[in-house]
Specification:
Elements lengths: L9 H21 L1 H8 L6 H7 L2 H26 L27
Helix pairs in contact: 1-4
Length: about 110
Amino acid sequence: MADEMEFWDEDRYMELNTYFRIKIQGMVDSDPYIRDLQKSESGLQLTDLINRMSDRDQKLWEEFIKLDRIKLHLDMQNHLEGKGTPYSPRHGFGGVSSEADDSASPW
């Protein structure tokens, strides 16, 4: 993980996070196959969404997941060292309340 830390790019992480937040919401709202899966007994799984993405978006998703792993590691390290926003079971490491506008905060 230490080698991956040099690849941390918060701006890129937020850019991809926003992109996929919008992309996935659009898929859920407009793709009949995805809507049918939501109603099915097994429900909609993240892999169902990823498999419906273009090759370009799947590559971007891989980049996002790598950055997300680094972010989780940084958040856990900060938590253990008493730095940053403390972890809460309800809000994770973000500490965002339900009343706050979370449109710009990561998932």
